[in-house]
Specification:
Shape: globular
Structural class: alpha+beta
Strand content: 15-25%
Order of helices and strands: EEHHHHEEHHHHHEEEEEEEE
Largest sheet: 4 strands, antiparallel
Radius of gyration: 26 Å
Number of strands: 12
Number of domains: 4
Helix content: 25-40%
Amino acid sequence: MRYEAHKLTLSINGTTWEARGRRLLEAGWTAVFADEDEDAQDQSLPALKEGDIVHCHDVQTLKKRTTPPARFTEGTLIEAMAHVHRFVADADAKAVLRENEGIGTEATRAAVIETLKQRGYLQIDRKAIVASQLGKEIVAMTPDMLKDPVTTAAWESRLEAVAQGKESLSSFMEEQARVLPDLMQAILGTAPTPAFPCPSCGKALNRRKGKKAGTWFWGCTGYPSCSTTMPDSNGKPGTPRKRAELTQYSCSSCGKPLVQRSGAKGAFFGCSGYPGCKQTWPVGADGAPNFTPKQKRQ
């Protein structure tokens, strides 16, 4: 079965609403074994383009109670490990984790859980898996970077590059040997001076692969509490990029201050609300933003 997913984002009386639906392209086997209840839940949305005006004909208020997600069982935890990309917001990391089938393998996931139980980090409460007090303390002491599935995705990408001959295993292992002692100091009770401390919080900086092929940058291991990044300069942290200063001019779309930036085509003014607001304006002859609308080509 193939279908085209649709999503509408609407603004009604100053609030944002979403509507979702899908249009069937190929029925496949469902043409023979169709589930009437499932078909009934699908809704087709009208064809609209950005800026179209729609009318709200009816509003209903439903009383519901928010409940916490069910505790993991061994079966559901193994499934979550296999599909950990569902819990990741970063698009690139999500793709890597999906491609590498999550954390561990079918042969090792159950063994990982069993090891955690044997070491007293996990306990079984009826059928549910719960963290022991020791497990909670270990998690609390563990740096955020080591608890983040995005780190797993980054390491998987590096190891894939090693397998393809694009990167040497020795360079990967040397970086791990340099960074891991700094990451583990809270658990091991040691406090070595980081080789490259973060200028904002003092925690260790970690060299990471950039989105563009062959590029690198340095990020703080205290992320997400510290989001400091620095450019890479021959394998070491370079000089931090200066933050764009707010100007006296305001964005005509959202009202936030403008900042002057430099791009491939020269200087321009952009909204400080980026990426929420992506408005840009050229620099006028007087050095101020040129708010004159651009003429569309006929």
